[in-house]
Structure formats: C-alpha cells, structure tokens
Amino acid sequence: MSSKELKSITSGRMSSTELKSITSVLRRCAAAAPCNLLVFGITHETLLWNSLNHNGRTVFVDESSYLVSKLEENHPGIEACDVQYTTKVSELYDLMEHYKEQMKNECWPVQNLLSSDCKLAINDLPNHIYDVPWDVILIDGPRGYFPAALGRMAAIFTAGVLARSKRDGAADTHVFMHEIYREVERSCSDEFLCRENLLETKDSLGHFVVGKMEANRFEFCPNSDSSFPESNSSN
Predict the structure, then answer these.
(1) Could you tell me which of 95, 94, 97, 103 has the C-alpha nearest to residue 220?
(2) 153-164 vs 92-102: helix axis angle to the nearest 10?
C-alpha cells in the first residue's frame, strides 16, 4: 500500500503509548504459541500488526473493498476481507434498544453469528473466521467520526460474542478498543466488553480481557452497572 493511500485512511494514528500496549500483548501471545489476531479496520498501523504477528494468523476486516484489494495486491501474504456494515453512528440508541429487546432472543453473548438475526451481529464474513479462537481482537474501524458515518457498534458486539463463544480450553481474549472515549465506543464497550473486564486504558486505547461464557447466559456484563468510568488511565 502506497504512502498516498495510507494518508487517505481516516482512522487516527495511534500514540506511541497505545502502540506499546498492543505490541506488548502481541509479543507475549506470540511467545506462548502461534497467535490469532483479528483487526477491524485497515489503518496506518496495519503493516505493523501483520509484522509483529508474523508466526501467527492475522486477519484484517474493513468496509472498503478497495483498501482490502490494494492491501492484498501489494502484500500477498496478508489476509483481509471486506464487510458490509449497516450500523451508523446516529443509530446508536435505536440499536441499543433493539439489543435490549432481543437480549434473550437473537442478541445472546454466546451464539453462532452466522445464523444470527441480531442487528448488531456481523454474519457475512468468510465462514472460517467464526471458527478461529481469536487471542487478540483490535477494534479500530469503521471510522465513525460523524453521525452519518458507519459506526463500530457491530464490530464491538461481534468481538464480544467471539470472545465469549470460544471453544473449551481456549484462553481469554484480549480486546483492544481504540478511541474508547467517543460515544459509540464508550457505550458499546461498556455494554458488550464490560467495565469489569477493562484492564487499563492508555491514552484513548482501552484494553479488555474477556473470558468464555456459558451458553445459557443472556447478559454480557452481569456484574456491571450502566455507567462507564470517565478515566482509567495508567500511563
């Protein structure tokens, strides 16, 4: 991918502190076993994530089929796929109401996303992606910078389900949320990743550790209230 194309990517660059936080986890993960890394968003840091996880499996998911095709064309070893997001930033509260109405029906925390009718579920990725026990999930897309833009609600919900639906014996999942203090990211992280799972924040990066859950549970965060901490920085 050329420098000109990288400049066209709208997600903000990460700070050195944020990069260090993710890098540390990826290195520990790779040292223990081949690491499975799922990244929502093609950003300025894409090639860095791929290189850090060179012995593991890394998959990038982005709403731009153009960026996906250019990434794979210029870097044949990279695995990427495009997704058709349907959730806009302005629809946050309507989607959260849908979730609350369907939390005992279609929007369960442990489920087969491929057959889900929950409006927050991403179910059009390649089938094999849902079978991978992801060790690390980074949410840095879609861009979500203004009301009409595609929001990250579905990416956050899907990450929460993937982490809780892992097969027996799989380790907890590290989930990183970039720009966590924006409204969509804050609200959905509180609801689907859970404040009790928040290990730390570094600048605008939230680091959650999410464990597996029993299939008969319907609350993502049984021990959490509805508020998100204003700041939990540990720089």
Answers:
(1) 103
(2) 30
In the chain, the amino acid numbered 202 is: K
Q: What is the 3-state secondary structure (H, E, C) of 114-153?
A: HHCCCCCCCCCCCHHHHHCCCCEEEECCCCCCCCCCECCH
Q: Considering the entire predicted model, what is its pTM? A: 0.90
- Alpha-carbon span 157 to 62, nearest angstrom: 16
Closest by Cα among 166, 151, 160 to 206: 160
Contacts of 91-99 with C-beta under 8 Å, sequence gap 24+, read: 91/151, 91/153, 92/151, 92/153, 92/183, 92/184, 92/187, 92/188, 95/119, 95/120, 95/153, 96/153, 96/187, 96/188, 96/191, 99/157, 99/191
Angstrom distances, CA of residue 77 to CA of 42, 140, 212 = 15, 21, 31
Length of the chain: 235
- Which three-class secondary structure state does DSSP give residue 52? helix
Question: pLDDT digit string (tens) for 24-61?
Answer: 999 999 888 899 999 999 999 999 999 999 889 999 99
